From TrEMBL:
Residues 1-29 form the signal peptide. One of its GO terms (molecular function) is serine-type carboxypeptidase activity. It comes from Cercospora beticola. InterPro entries: AB_hydrolase_fold, Peptidase_S10, Ser_caboxypep_his_AS, Ser_caboxypep_ser_AS. GO terms for biological process: proteolysis. Belongs to the peptidase S10 family. This is Carboxypeptidase. It comes from the Eukaryota. Keywords: Carboxypeptidase, Glycoprotein, Hydrolase, Protease, Signal. Its EC number is 3.4.16.-.
């Protein structure tokens, strides 16, 4: 018997299917029309911005010239269109070695700015480690060209700090990157003492005398920057060392507090990235409680603080050690790799596979995929363009000790009372401490704890949590490879010359993960913008209109349920 296709149920099903197809077709047409309208709107907005940008760049305030090229600087001049794999001209820059003394030299890369507001300033960038190269920052974060992990080629950096100020990236201390000589530093005083004569030679070479100096960096530069800045200030010489401000990201200012004490609360706040079982979680909770970390956090995150708080029983943060029975960070770090072998401590949430990176970073261990044998800056053709010594095996972070002796850097943490951080704040009244909320190397709450235990300009800590909204302007990401976010992207607090700002969706290297946020921070540091809540365009993109916030920006997005997280007095 042949099947019948004229049955009533089949007819009803066919009609229903036809209606569904018609409905989907209409819906698709509506969606297509909506997308077309949005695309048209974006294109119109883009063309309008392009016209305004071109009009702005035709003004004489953006000269295209070699400002610092002369007979003295010629040996250091970099042909900006000759860098291998870089398909564009990076602009005017200079690089090479300059002496500390007869036996030691530091490598630098200087990128002048065409911004007229930069005529009386110079900004230093230092990466951390200790022993990690600052040209990592040049190529991954805030230089004129960036080659991000997982991308095919470098692109022009919309958020290059040289758009705002004269930038110099310095590989230090001795033993880092291309820098020359045998390391002999035992502490940060030695590092600063070696940095200062190099800096004088740099200033003399490029005739940058009597300029404001801004010192910036990240990670272990939380030690470098305060100690170097304090040493500069002590020279009392504005011809070379007129320190006007300092900015440090995810800084090592008190590592025991920023890692051990804050570890378990960080894991709980990011539970989906740390799906530990109940047994291991209980172990962490018991150890955290027994070692006094919970009490330390409870006392430390009160605003304003009720008084100074001493070491938790499990750590000594003056001498930088943690008792074995009070280690929480290391067990977490070991356990998470059992669950997620591609875990990235620099920005939690990374899953397999690891992204290829031209410098082999940023992961807990250097990673090169099959067929990739050396980092970009170890190539001979690259070394030749930037005047680097060809016999050096360049590493993003050296496997050699840059501090001599069995104990490494013997200096106290920069963030203790009476330390260099306090001195720089009180001298400049212009210090920014920024922190990515996805960083586990050094955890944001730990840094805030350290600052809240510090007394500067006559008072201890902050009177309120970092709940003022941090506003990042809507910008013109005219290079697809360097797009970045905008809007309220965290919270901040500014009191008595010190700003703490927490940045959402950012890991350890804020200028890499949230470059537009770091760009705004720099504008505030340089005095181009009043504060981090100001709703105004980037100073280099004034043609980009900003939204109107009739009800204000709110309290920021980084500290939800602030009353539950902190004790706020008054």
């Amino acid at each position: 018997m042949k099947p019948s296709f004229s049955s009533k149920p089949f007819h009803q099903a066919t009609m229903a299917l036809s209606s569904l197809i018609l409905l989907l077709g209409c819906t698709a047409a509506v969606v297509d029309a909506g997308l077309a309208a949005r695309q048209s709107m974006l294109e119109k907005r883009g063309l309008n911005r392009l016209a305004k940008r071109q009009d702005l760049q035709q003004q004489p305030s953006f000269p295209n010239q070699r400002q610092f090229l002369n007979n003295k600087t010629q040996p250091y001049w970099v042909n900006g269109s000759a860098l291998p794999e870089v398909y564009f001209d990076i602009g005017e820059s200079y690089s090479g070695l300059l002496p500390i003394d007869e036996s030691k030299e530091l490598f630098f890369w200087f990128v002048p700015s065409t911004n007229p507001d930069a005529k009386d300033e110079i900004t230093i960038w230092l990466n951390g480690g200790p022993g990690c190269s600052s040209i990592d920052g040049f190529f991954h974060e805030n230089g004129p060209a960036i080659w991000q992990p997982g991308t095919y080629l470098p692109v022009p950096n919309t958020w290059a700090w040289s758009n705002l100020t004269n930038m110099v990236f310095i590989e230090q201390p001795v033993g880092t990157g291309f820098s020359q000589g045998t390391p002999n530093a035992t502490n940060e005083e030695d590092v600063a003492a070696q940095f200062l004569p190099f800096w004088k030679n740099f200033i003399d070479l490029f005739e940058l005398h009597d300029r404001k100096v801004y010192v910036t960096g990240e990670s272990y530069a939380g030690m470098y920057c305060p100690y170097i800045s304090a040493a500069m200030i002590e020279q009392n010489c504005t011809k070379y060392f007129d320190v006007a401000g300092m900015m440090i990201y995810d800084p090592s200012i008190q590592p025991q507090v920023s890692s051990e004490v804050a570890a378990l609360p960080f894991v709980k706040a990011h539970y989906p990235d740390f799906p530990f079982n109940e047994t291991f979680t209980a172990f962490l909770e018991n150890r955290t409680q027994a070692c006094g970390y919970n009490e330390y956090i409870e006392n430390g995150l009160q605003f304003p603080p009720k008084g100074t708080f001493d070491n938790p029983p499990g750590v000594n943060y003056t001498n930088n050690y943690t008792l074995d029975d009070c280690q929480v960070f290391d067990p977490i770090f070991e356990a998470i790799f059992e669950i997620n072998p591609c875990f990235d401590i620099y920005q939690v949430g990374q899953i397999c596979p690891l992204l290829w990176d031209v410098l082999g970073f940023p992961y807990p261990a250097t990673y090169f995929p099959v067929g990739f044998t050396q980092p970009y800056f170890n190539r001979t053709d690259v070394k030749q363009v930037i005047h680097a010594p060809e016999n050096v095996n360049w590493q993003i972070c050296t496997d050699k000790d840059v501090f001599v002796g069995d104990n490494g850097d013997t200096s106290p943490p920069s963030g203790i009372q009476g330390g260099p951080l306090q001195k720089v704040i009180e001298k400049t009244n212009n210090v920014i401490v920024g922190h990515g909320d996805l960083d586990m190397v050094l955890i944001a709450n730990g840094t805030l704890l350290t600052l809240n235990n510090l007394t500067w300009n006559g008072q201890q800590g902050f009177s309120k949590p970092p709940i003022d909204p941090f506003y990042v302007p809507y910008g013109d990401d005219y290079v697809n490879g360097s797009i970045a976010g905008s809007g309220v992207m965290g919270g901040h607090v500014t009191e008595r010359g010190l700003t703490f700002v927490a940045v959402v969706l950012s890991g350890h290297e804020v200028p890499e993960y949230q470059p537009s946020a770091a760009y705004r921070h720099l504008e505030v540091l340089l005095g181009r913008v009043g504060n981090l809540s100001e709703v105004s365009p980037f100073t280099t993109q004034r043609y980009v209109e900003q939204p109107k916030f009739e009800k204000g920006l709110g309290r920021g997005t980084w500290w939800p349920n602030v009353e539950e997280r902190f004790t706020v007095q008054g």
